[in-house]
Design a protein that fits this description.
Elements: H1 13-24, E1 31-35, H2 42-53, H3 70-76, E2 83-86, H4 97-107, E3 117-121, H5 129-140, E4 146-152, H6 160-164, E5 167-170, H7 176-187, H8 193-202, H9 207-216, H10 219-233, H11 239-246, H12 251-270, H13 283-286, H14 295-304, H15 307-336, H16 343-356
Parallel strand pairs: 1-4, 1-5, 2-3, 3-4
Helix pairs in contact: 1-2, 4-5, 7-8, 8-9, 10-11, 10-12, 11-16, 12-15, 15-16
Amino acid sequence: MNNANAWEFPWLQNLLESLQRSQNDGTLAHAYIISGARGLGKEQIAIAIAAFLTCEAPNPQGQGPCGECKGCRLNATGNHPDVLLLAPKEPGKALTVDLIRKLSDYVHVSSHAGGARVAVLSSAHKMNSSASNALLKTLEEPHESTYLFLVTDSPGLLSPTIRSRCQRITLPIPALEVSLEWMRKLCGGEFDEALATSCLKAAGGSPLLAMAMLTDESLPSRQALERAFVACLTGIATPESLLASLMLAEPITAIEQILSTTAHYAKLMLDTNQQADDGAIDTAVLGGLVSNATWAQFIAQISAVDADENTRRRALLGNRLVRLYDEIEKARRQIGSPTNPNTKLLLESLCWLTSRALK
């Protein structure tokens, strides 16, 4: 798990302060589901909550743990005996019932430090049915001063009964200005705002993913994938060429990319007040939705025709993109599930659906 300090993420500070106030006044729930897009800091915020729950002298003003007590020193090294971090044994694998039984045993043991005990379950949506049933028993018998945080990209894959036993924390996408300012501080004098903005757009607004792109220089490959997707969408390229591009990337990352692109273009098409977006990835290709013109030229063309026809055409294409989004999201949930689906077959199906979406 990533141990970056969530208190350094400006888009999480208000939420962390609110949770710490809840702890101070005794209203913090025993179980939470922390969800949201990748790259927002879900695991980091769970670890930050664990840190102030086990701090021996937390800041009464809601500004996080003291950072100096024995509990904070143990948390800094990931060795606090009252903080349990659980994740699948291998990336992409299921959370097994053995891991959940370990959690069940853990919550029945008294605190070593005499305070709170915290468990963080990463990739909670990866539980198989046996693990889900075992976890439900733990949730139904909460222990005093014991807190459980389920971290997930796909809360819909959790059983309805588990969801009903937990409070929800959904991390929002921060404003562009907030993310840029955070990236600027990290980069110092060599900050390239235009490049950072492109990274944020390619990352769907998730600042941690954007920062990773900025440092590992993966933006060109991501842009190439998006161009391949839009080319297939508009009929310029074949489903096979899109599949080849998708297979070059990690599956869940590739699907999240095209999901974000589909949402972006659907919004552009359905927003009748939307003007040309010079920052959008490959807006020239987007003109192929109706013609070979650039997006700006397309806007000018449809604004010259009958207003009702203009609205009808855009709504038709926009709704088709929304339906494609639903199919991509369905595939994302399948790939993220613990059932080990045939990834290549899912991607092939998505490529075919993409090529047919606007026909």
